[in-house]
């Protein structure tokens, strides 16, 4: 009898073990999300999401602001994707095995930086050669990439070799525009492509008796050659601007003469005509100046 009871108990335990093993085989462990490689990026930027127990890439649905993204690759601890076209700022979510988890509630989709060249921006002036200098400044907006007549939505302004910013106060110069923005200027040294951020720079504003970008040969952006009467940009001099609304741009002046001649002739080439490269970051609070 005791033997029969022992066998019965053994079969009962064995059955329970097998049943439990089958149940465990059918259980899929829930995934977790621990981090995302960036909280903001432009469309097309590669993003990595880390966590645990991720399934295969084909079993993962991923969205940025409700827009589906393609999963480039996935391991049990890492998902690689890119910010999809049409994405808007908002939550990033991962769905797999019937479970949806929020990676971050507030991913910011950034606008691409603007990388452009302005050709033949005219900056005439009156007077000179002992006479009082005057005439209106030519105002420029980085947001539109155009010359503007706006009294408020301008960032920098040109007249002759002088560059004003829409920040600070009037300098006392004839016919200068009123300052009503938060613009400023800093001068960086190096290649244009190497000036990658506005971080760490000290921005000056226009003030009574002085421009943020110093005027005069070898002081700001240009050299004047008295032998040839020509104005040429100082090599390795990059102008970095905080715009009137607190964004950032960098400028490389290429020429002070119409059509940017390689060797300007002061007697035949029209001067006070700027050509310059610029990179503008249209994103609030973003200081990067590296454009792809």
Could you give a quick summary of the protein structure above?
With 292 residues, the chain is mainly beta. Helices cover 8% and strands 42% of the residues.
Structure description:
This protein has one helix at residues 2-25; strands spanning 32-36, 40-42, 46-52, 61-64, 67-69, 71-74, 78-82, 90-96, 99-110, 114-122, 126-128, 131-134, 138-141, 146-148, 156-159, 162-165, 184-189, 222-225, 230-233, 237-242, 248-257, 271-281. By secondary structure, it is mainly beta. The strands form 6 sheets. Strands 2-9-8-4-5 form a 5-stranded mixed sheet, with no helix packed on it. Strands 10-22-21-20-17 form a 5-stranded antiparallel sheet, with no helix packed on it. Strand 11 (126-128) and strand 12 (131-134) form a beta hairpin. The longest helix has 24 residues, at 2-25. The chain is elongated and about 90 Å long. The termini are far apart. Mean pLDDT is 92; it is low at 1-5 and 7-24.
Order of helices and strands: HEEEEEEEEEEEEEEEEEEEEEE
% residues in beta strands: 35-45%
Instruction: Please count the beta strands (DSSP E, at least 2 residues each).
Output: 22
Largest sheet: 5 strands, mixed
- Rg, rounded, reads 31 Å
**Number of helical elements:** 1
Overall shape? elongated
Compute the number of structural domains. Answer: 2
Structural class: mainly beta
Unreliable sequence segments? 1-5, 7-24
Strand order of the largest sheet: 2-9-8-4-5
What is the secondary structure topology, with strand pairs?
Blueprint: H1 2-25, E1 32-36, E2 40-42, E3 46-52, E4 61-64, E5 67-69, E6 71-74, E7 78-82, E8 90-96, E9 99-110, E10 114-122, E11 126-128, E12 131-134, E13 138-141, E14 146-148, E15 156-159, E16 162-165, E17 184-189, E18 222-225, E19 230-233, E20 237-242, E21 248-257, E22 271-281
């Amino acid at each position: 009898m005791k033997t029969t009871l022992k066998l019965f108990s053994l079969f009962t335990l064995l059955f329970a073990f097998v049943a439990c093993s089958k149940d465990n085989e059918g259980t899929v462990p829930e995934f977790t999300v621990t981090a995302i490689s960036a909280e903001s990026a432009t469309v097309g930027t590669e993003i990595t999401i880390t966590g645990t127990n991720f399934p295969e890439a084909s079993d993962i649905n991923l969205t940025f602001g409700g827009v589906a993204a393609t999963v480039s690759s996935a391991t049990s601890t890492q998902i690689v994707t890119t910010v999809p076209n049409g994405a808007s700022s908002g939550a990033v979510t991962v769905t797999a095995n019937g479970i949806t988890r929020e990676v971050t509630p507030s991913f910011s989709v950034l606008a691409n930086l603007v990388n452009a060249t302005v050709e033949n921006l005219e900056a005439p002036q009156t007077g000179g050669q002992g006479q009082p200098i005057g005439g209106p400044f030519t105002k420029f907006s980085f947001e539109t990439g155009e010359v503007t007549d706006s009294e408020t939505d301008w960032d920098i302004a040109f007249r002759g070799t002088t560059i004003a910013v829409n920040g600070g106060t009037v300098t006392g110069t004839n016919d200068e525009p009123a300052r009503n923005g938060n613009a400023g200027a800093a001068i960086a040294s190096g290649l244009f492509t190497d000036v990658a951020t506005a971080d760490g720079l000290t921005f000056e504003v226009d003030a009574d008796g002085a421009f943020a970008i110093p005027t005069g040969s070898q002081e700001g952006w240009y050299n004047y050659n008295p032998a040839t009467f020509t104005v040429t940009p100082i090599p390795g001099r990059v102008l970095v601007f905080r715009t009137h609304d607190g964004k950032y741009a960098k400028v490389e002046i290429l020429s002070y003469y119409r059509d940017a001649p390689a060797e300007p002739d002061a007697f035949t080439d029209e001067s006070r005509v700027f050509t310059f490269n610029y990179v503008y970051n249209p994103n609030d609070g973003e200081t990067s100046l590296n454009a792809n």
